[in-house]
Amino acid sequence: MVISVTIGVLGLVFLYLGVPWIYGQLARILLKQKTKERGALVLTFDDGPSSSLTPSILSILAESKAKATFFLLGRNVAGREAIVGQIAQQGHDICSHGYDHLHGWKVSPFRALSDIKRGWEAIDAALGTRRQKYPFRPPNGKLNIICLLYLLIRQVPIVYWSIDSGDTWREKPDSRRVAMLTEKAGGAVSLAHDFDRSKEDTSRFVVESVRAALAMAADKCMRVLTVSELLDLGR
Q: What predicted TM-score, i.e. pTM, was given to this entire model?
């Protein structure tokens, strides 16, 4: 009896957490393959928009005539609607990172699901649209089975990354990291964060990292694409 219950519990845990984790790992592998096949650099930014760093990134992208993808955090949209509008006007991808950056394994599935919807609503409110859904990047890369099934049923692209710039966890990040790893892999979906920092050095690192990656792409004739372009999503 005890063994049967234990097996049952482990099976439920695997279904709830393990299946979404496997899905995420496979999605990352496919991203790596797709970027390599297309020789593409896809710059993505999470947790914005911010009042200072996001405009700086937009200026660099405009100078290089390059497009990027911004996974907006709903709670950071209010008061920065003009910046969201600027992202859209410059032709960049606008995607969602949820509203409150909830870890899909650490909150109830229904709270996580509500957070996804709330994030979409915040973007729609800022843009004055009613799309009601946007490509989604799970905070911390973690989904539970309820959210995974909901997104799949609604045909919402779930977008991970293949290279992490290290701007939130490396003690001494190297601004050449994304450029070097992307060149070595033949393409990548890079992850950086464009929320405002208390440490100016970190914001400077993000800016320098973007510049270095774009310079490498130009030097190696690598295409700089948005998520929509890479995945042929249309907009």
A: 0.95
